[in-house]
Predict the 3D structure of the following.
Amino acid sequence: MGINADAVTPEQMEQYECYQNELNRAASEWRAGTGARWADRNPTDVEGTNASWMTRYGKPKTWVVHDALRTVPRDVKWLEIGCSSGAHSRVLEAVGFRGLVGTDVNRDSLLAGSIGRVCQADAAALPYPTDGVDGITTGGTLMHLGPADRLTESVREIFRVARSYVFLVELWSAEPMMVLFGDLLPPAWLYPWEQVLLPFMDDGWEVVYHEVHHLIKIKGQSKLTAPMGVTLIARKGL
């Protein structure tokens, strides 16, 4: 059960193998500084995030999130994985949620201004019991969690810890691919959303909202486009 690493093309795997010996160093760099540099590339306040989404997708992110979560009670407590400096959490707060908790492996990003409570944690080993939080959310995090085996571990943890909801705002691709963002390591990995999520959705979960927003161009990849998917998964019967 999990993501099929064989689905990656030989060319992409050859490209990845060039980085394989550097992954441990790159992960350490992400903790020590790359994560903070990534956070610096993006707005952290709601106004800036909305402006960025208007430019890329023609809609403010608060509108998109409100529409996706319109049926979710506002007393649900969210845990954000890969919260960085808190932009995604602030959007959830802007649409009425409180008591958010953020986790990130990069301590500097956490100190830069995440809202609510924060803790330094690895997405593949969350310090929470099974069904330990109401809901788990991510905003542009999954692509940074590594190739197939690493991403599988993290998604398994998300579904283990979430009691009622999983809400993801993520870039997806039609087929597995690796994306380089300038000098930022490790590289990002994109997958089809069904390939990432469906293996972990047993009879107790169902997709209740999935909206794909228009294609964007990823900086540095002149011919690469990837859709932004907004997906709400809930326990059946809620």
